[in-house]
Design goal:
The structure is a homooctamer of 247-residue chains.
Chain A lengths: L1 H10 L5 H10 L2 E3 L4 E3 L1 H6 L3 E4 L5 H13 L4 E4 L3 H10 L3 E4 L4 E4 L11 E6 L5 H13 L3 E5 L7 H5 L2 H6 L2 E6 L5 H8 L4 E5 L11 H8 L6 E3 L5 H13 L2
Parallel strand pairs in A: 3-4, 7-8, 7-9, 9-10, 10-11
Antiparallel strand pairs in A: 1-2, 4-6, 5-6
Helix pairs in contact in A: 6-11
C-alpha cells in the first residue's frame, strides 16, 4: 500500500529517486546509535510503544523515552528498576510506577478502549501476582477492560469452579501459574475462548526456573491453549489485547 | 445455568434427587471403560469431536468412532496410522484420509463456516508440510477459510517479503517452522494479528527433536506471538479456529 | 533378633563358628552366578518375588523362575516380552499373561487379601492404560482389592468430579498420567489419602519421554502426593500394597 | 454426601435456591483478593492450615494469618524468612520459630496425636538437616510421634546397619539425602514400610541443584519408595502424616 | 623449519645436546609458575597477546602484564574487573579501559591495519551492546577497520533491510543476538560473506542463559554461518580478524 | 543496485508499476507450492543450488531437481537416501552418488576453481568419515582444492604433530570430531588460519548425540575457532568455500 | 629418552638429518588413509592394540586387523557386530567372540600376567552383565587375574555384605551399575582400594540412558571413586589393568 | 576378621552377648546427633579424617574437630570458609589455612610418606588453580610426594610437550581443566599411568558450570582416564593417594 503510493510518487515525478530511497531507509525508525525507535507503530496499529528496560542502562532508557515523549506517545516500560523509575520521574513528573510488576507508565493522552470484550487474568497462587500484574497493566494500557481472579490453583479445584460464571464471561483468558502449572489445562476444559498460558518461575527444587510449568502448559491435553515465555506477563497482555481487538 | 435449571427441577419435584444425581454424573460423558466421550461438546461450542489416535489401539479407536457416529457427529482423527484408517474405512465407507498429515475425517453433515476472517498457514520449509497440513485440515474442519504459503523461511527473507499482502489479509496466522524456527519472529513484526507459532522437530544435530525451534519461538522479541507444543499442528489449528470465531 | 538367636546358638555351643559364618552368608540369597534370589522375602513380608524381565535373557529368566518355582512361590514378572512368556508357558502350563501391561504370572498358591482398604487406579487418558494396568495387576497380585477409573483427565474436569464418591472410598490412589500430568494435583485436592503419582511417557513434542509429566507431579502444590519413576506402574502398585497393608 | 444434604434441603424447602448457590460458592474458601483461604480443611481432615511463605510479601502473610487466627486454628508456616517471623511475633506473641528449617508455628490449641505409629526421619549427611527438620516439625505439628537419625549415609554403611532396630520400628520412613542420594535405596531393602525419599540440593558440581539425588531416587531398584520434590521436607512430612493416620 | 635449524646446529656441533633440550623446553613460553606466556605469538602471527582476566587474581594479571610489557607488546585484557584495571593503571599510566565491554588495553606501539576489508558488528538489540563492543574493540586492536550497526533485530525486519548496502560492503560480519537469536539467519540470506554468530545471554525465562540463542544459531538454515560461545565477543572479534587477514 | 535500476525503469516509464510489483515478487524465486527455488543464487554468488533432501519426499526432490536442471545449474543434494538417488538416476543418467556421505551430484557444467587457497578436512577418528566427506564433497563442488587427513585425534597427539606442514599449508581448516571433540582446540593452537569445527554424533554414553563434542568446541580456549551444527559437514564445507573465495 | 638417543645419533653422524625427520614422522603410526595404527604401543607399554568397532565399516575393521596381524600382535575388538566377527572369522580362523559383551579376540601369542593383584568386577543387577563382561574380558586380555560378583545391588544390601571378604581381597574394583547406580558409593565405604565406577544405560523412565547412574556416581560421598563413560566397560577394564600393573 | 575375633570372644565367654551387641553398634562411629564420626578410619587405612565443611555450621564443624582432636588425629577440612577457620584458629592455635583452595589443616603428628611414587597435578589454565591446589594439598596431607605443572592447556600444545619428561616420571597424574577440558585426553596419550580427570567450572557461556569439561572428559578417546565430580579436587587427591599407596 505505502510501497505503491511511493512508487506512484516516483512515477509522477512527485518524488525524487534519491528521496524515495532515503524515505525507505529513514522513515520508519529513528536511529539513536544504541537503539532504533519505531515511531510509526502507534499510527500503524494504534498501540503505543513499549520499552523492555532490563539490560538497558538508565542513560539509554532516558534517551529512548525522550524521543518518544517528543512525539506525544503514551509510554510503557516493563521490568523497570525502581532506581531507573526515580530518575525518569525527575524528568517526567507524570510518570507512574507499579512496584510489584515493575511497570513504568507515562501517559501523554487518554487511553481509548479498543477491546471488544473483557480480558481476564487468573493465577494459580499468590506468588504469581507480579507476573499476572505485568499482564494486567499491559493489557489495560493497550486499551482493554481487564479483570483478575487470583489464587485459584488446581490443587483446590473448588476455588476455580466457584468462579465459572466470571470465567465464562471473558473473551480472552490469561492463565498465570508456577509450580506444576496445571491451571490452563483445567481452564481450557471449562471455557471456549483462547487461553494464553504464562508459566512463572515461582517454585523450587525440580521446577528449574519455570521449566516445569512451561512443559506442563506446552503438553496440555486441553484445546485452545498457547504459551508464552516464562514470566512473560507483558507478552501475554499484549497478545490478549491483539486478540481482543479483532473485529 | 444448567445447574440452576436442575435445582429448580428438584425443588418443583419434577426431578427426583436420585435422578438428579444420576444426571449430574451421566449426562456429559459416555464412559466406555477405556474412554469418556464428550458428546455435548458439539452442542456447547459448535465444534465436532476430535480423536487423538496415537497410543490408542485400533479397537479402542473404532469403539469411540462408533459411539460418536451414532450421534451423527462429524469426526476428526489426528495422528491416525494408515492401517487404522483402512480398518475404519471398511466400516465407514465415507471416511477420508490425508496421508501426509495422517488426518482421518468422517463427515456426517456439512461443515458450516463459522470463522470471521481468513486463517493463513505459513511454513519455513518444505519439510514442515506434514505439521502444517495437520493445522490446515483441522482448521478447515472446524469451519474456517484457510490459505497456505509454504517454504518461505527467514534465510531467504525475500520469499517472505514478497507475500506481505497475503500475510496482511489474514485474521490469524499459524507459523510452522523447524530448525532455527525464526519465522514467527519476523512475521510478528510484519503483521498486527495473532501469530500462533508451531515448532517442528524437523532438523538434525543440536535441534534436539524440535527443542531448538521451541526455545526460539518462546524467546521471540516480537509481540503477539504464542507457542504450542512441538509438531502440534492440531493444537494450532484448533486455537486459530477459536480465535477466528470470536465475535 | 535373628542375630541374637544366632549369637546365643554360638554361645551355647549349639552352633559352630564356621557354620555361623556360613549361615550369615548363604541363607538369605541363592546365587545363580548371574542373579541372587531372595527366597526369604515372602516369609519376611508376605510378598511373593517379582522379576523385572527387561534386559534379562530368556535363559536367565527361566533359570530364576525355576528356582522360585521349586519353593512353591507365586511369581510375578514385569515387562515380560511375549516371546519370553511363550517359552515360560511351555514349561509352566499354568503361567498367565496380560498382553497390554506385559505382566507374567505364575500362581502356585492362593493370593490372600492382606490390604485393609481399597486401592484405586486412575488415569488421565486412554493411552495411559498399559502403565495403569501394570499397577493394577501388581497390586492385586500382592493381595489387594483394586478398582480402576480410566480417561478422566483434567482437561475435562467434570469427568473427574463425577467420580468423587468412588475417589473418596479409596484408601490409596494411584494416579497415572502422561502429557501435562496434572491429574494427581487435582486428585490431591479432592481426597485425604495418599496419592501415588505415576508419570507416563505418553505424549509427543516437548513431553521429552515423560519428563514433562514427571516435573509436573514433583512440583504439585497439592499435599499428600509422591512420585515414582516414569512408566513405573509396578513401583506404584507395590507401594500402594505396602501402604494398604499398614495396620 | 454434603451435596445430597444440600439437595434435600432444597427439596424440603428448607433451603432457598439462591442460598444454596451462594453456599456452594462461598462456604469453603475465604477470598482475600490475593489469596483464597481454605477454612474447612481442618474440619474436613483434622489438619491445620499450612502457609508456604516463599514468594509472598510480609503483608500478605500477616493478612492470611489474621484470618486463620480468627478461627482459632493452629498455624504452620514453611520457608518463613526470619524478618517475617519477627513481624509476626510482634502481633502474635506465642508464635515460635525453628531457625534451621525456617518453620513458623502459632499453636492456638493442643496438638492431638492422630498417628498410629512412629515416623522416622533419616538423613545421609549433616548438611541435609535443614530439609530433614522441615519434615520433622511438619509431621509433629500434624499430630505424630517422630524420631530422627541423622548422618548415616551409605558411604559408611555400618552407620546405617547399626540402626536397623530403630529403622524397623517405624511405620513410615522419610529418607533425606543430597549428593548421590542413595540412602532410600538401601533403606528400602532393609525395611518393609513405605519410604518417602526427599532429594536435597546439598552438594556441588554435577549435582545440579539436587537433580542428581532426585534421579537416583526415582530410579531406585528398591520397592516401596516414592519421591517428593527437591528440598521438599514439608511435602514429605505431610505425606508421612497422611499415611500414618490411615486406619 | 626451526626444528631443522636446531638439528643442524646439533649436527654441526654448534649446539650442545643439553642446550638443545633446554632450548626446546624454554624458548616458546615463559613459565611464571601460575601461567605460561607465549611471547613468540606476536612474532609468529602478528597478533599481540590477549589476557582472559576472569578467574585470575589481580596479582597474577599484574605479573603477566609485567612480563609482556617488558617485551614491548601491545596488551589486550578481556573481562577485566574495574578494580583490576585501577591497579593496572597505577603501574601503567597509558592503560585504557572500555567500561561496557570490560576491555583493558595497553598500547605500547602503533596498531597496523592488517585487515583486507571491513569488519561489521551487528546486534539484534540494545542489550547486546556489551558483547558486541568486546568483539568491536578486539577486532580493532588486532588491526582492522570495524563498523557497527546496533539494534536491528528481526522482529522489526525493516530496520535491517534499510541497512543492506552497509551489510553488503563488509568482508566479514559479526552478528550478536540474544533472546531468539534469529539475526544471523536473516543476515546469512542477505550477504555472501562469512557471518560469525555470537549468542548472548540477554533475555529471560526459557532463554536459559543464552542456550536459546545458541541453539537457534547452530540450527540456522542459512549458509555461511558459524557460531562461537555464548557472550564470546572476543572470540568472534579474533576470528573475524583472522579471516579478514587472509590474503 | 537492482532496486535503483527498477526504480529508474519506473521513473522513465519503461516499467509499469504493476509489472514492477510483479517483478519484485516473482523474479527471485520460483514457487512450486511446496518449495521456493532460488534461481538467481548462482548468478549472485557463483554457487550452484543445494538441496537438503532429508524430510522431503522423493516426489518433491524430483520436482525441485527438474526446475533446477532446466536452468542448466549444477545440482548438489545432501542427506540423500540411496533409494531417492536411484529414482533420480533413472531420469538424470549423469547423476552421481557418494554412498558414505549420502551426497547426490548432477554436474551440468564444469566446476570452476574459485578458491584462493587450499581447504583441509581433518578428522579425529575413522568413524567421523561420513560427516567429513560431506564437507569434502560440498567444498569441492563449490570450486575449491580440498585435501583430507583422517584419524589424527588428540589421544595420540603425535599423529597430528606429524602432519604440521600439511596443516600449515591450508588456508581454511575443517576439523571434524566426535567423542570428546578436542581436535579443533589443538589445531587452533598449531595454525593461524580459521578453523571450522564440526562436532559429530559419533560416540556413546554421555556424548548425548554429539552434545559433548559440541560443548567442547564452543568452549575451546584456542582462538580462531567457530562451530557449526552437529554432523553438519555441508555447512562447514560451504562456509570454508565462502572464506576461501574472499579476495 | 628416545629423543635424546635420536639426537645423539644425529650428533655422532650415525643418523642423517633427513632420516631423523622421517623417523620422527613415520615410525609410530601406519597410515591407512582412514586410520592411523599405533604399532609401537605394545612395545611401549606391553599392551596389545584395541579396535573400537562401532561406527567402522567391516572393510575398515578388516584392513586394520590385517596390518596388526602382520606384526603378530594380540588383537582385541570391542563393540563388534556378530556379522563383522563372522567375516573376520573367515580370514582368521583362531578369532574368538564373546556374544554378550560383543568382544572380538585374536590371540597370536600368550597373554602374560602383568597385574600385581586381583581385579574384581561387581554388578548391581543381572542386566548390567554385558557391560561388566566387556570390562572383565578387556582386563583379562591385558594380563590380569579377574574375578566377578554379579547382581549384588544396594537394594538388597546383605547380598553385598556377604561378599566382604572377596571384596577386600581385590587390588582394584570395577563397580558396574545402572538404574540408581549407588553400588560404588557403598563399595567405596567397604574397601580401601580404588573403585572404578561404570554407569550403565540399564533402566527406564527418568534414567535418561544412564545419566541417572552417571550423576549418582559422580556425586558419590565415598572417597576413592572415579567414573568412566556410560556403558564403557572397556575403559574401566583398561584403567584397572593400568592401575594393577603399577609397581 | 574382626567379626571372627568377636565371635570367638563370645564363644569363649570372654565377651558378654549384650556387650558384643553394644560393641558392634558403638565402636566404629561416635554419634554427635548431627554427625557420626569414623574414628577407626585412621587405624584401618592409615588415612586421617577429612571434614567437608560446606553446608555445615561453624558450631558443627567445631564439634567434629573437638572429637577428632581428642584422639590426636591429623585433621583436614575442605571448602572451609575463612571465617570458620578464624574461629577454629582461636581454639587450635596450630591450625593452618590455604586461602586459594580453602583447605584447613590441623597437624597433630608427623605425616608419613606412604606413597610409592610421585603424584603430579597438571592444569589447563591459571584459573584452575584453586581446584588443583585442593588436590595438591589433600594428596600431600595423605602422605605423598606431589609436584605441579600449571597452565599447560592443549590450545598451546607445546607448553605440554615441553614437559613430557616430568609427566613420564609420575606414578599418577591429576589433570585439572575447565572450558573445553581436553587436557586429560592429550595426557592420556602421552603417558602410561592412570590419569584422574577433574573438570572445573571455570569458563562461561555454554560451559554450563563445568558440564562441558565433564562431558569432554567422560567421552575421552584416550585410555586410562577416569573422572571425578566437577571441581572435586579433594576426590582426585584422595584417589591419587589411594592408587599411589598400592603395593
Amino acid at each position: 500500500m505505502d510501497l505503491r503510493e511511493l512508487l506512484e510518487g516516483v512515477k509522477d515525478n512527485n518524488l525524487d529517486i534519491e528521496d524515495a530511497l532515503l524515505k525507505l531507509k529513514n522513515l520508519p525508525y529513528e536511529d539513536l546509535g544504541y537503539a532504533n525507535i519505531d515511531h510509526h507503530r502507534e499510527i500503524r496499529n494504534g498501540y503505543p510503544e513499549v520499552i523492555y528496560c532490563e539490560g538497558k542502562s538508565d542513560e539509554h532508557i532516558l534517551g529512548i523515552i525522550e524521543k518518544m515523549n517528543e512525539k506525544g506517545s503514551n509510554i510503557l516500560g516493563t521490568r523497570c528498576r525502581k532506581e531507573t523509575f526515580d530518575k525518569v520521574k525527575e524528568v517526567y513528573n507524570h510518570a507512574e510506577y507499579e512496584a510489584l510488576s515493575k511497570i513504568l507508565k507515562i501517559q501523554n493522552h487518554d487511553i481509548v478502549n479498543v477491546g471488544k470484550g473483557k480480558v481476564l487474568v487468573v493465577t494459580g497462587g499468590t506468588s504469581d501476582m507480579s507476573v499476572a500484574d505485568e499482564a494486567y497493566y499491559t493489557c489495560k494500557f493497550l486499551g482493554n477492560e481487564v479483570d483478575k481472579i487470583y489464587d485459584v490453583g488446581v490443587a483446590g479445584i473448588h476455588r476455580l469452579l466457584n468462579r465459572i460464571p466470571a470465567l465464562q464471561e471473558a473473551r480472552v483468558i490469561i492463565a498465570v501459574a508456577g509450580m506444576e502449572g496445571a491451571l490452563p489445562s483445567v481452564l481450557g476444559g471449562l471455557v471456549d475462548v483462547p487461553v494464553i498460558a504464562v508459566p512463572t518461575s515461582v517454585g523450587y527444587g525440580a521446577n528449574f526456573g519455570g521449566l516445569s510449568a512451561l512443559l506442563t502448559m506446552l503438553n496440555s491435553c486441553a484445546s485452545g491453549i498457547s504459551v508464552v515465555n516464562i514470566d512473560n506477563g507483558f507478552g501475554a497482555g499484549y497478545l490478549a489485547a491483539m486478540i481482543n481487538k479483532l473485529k
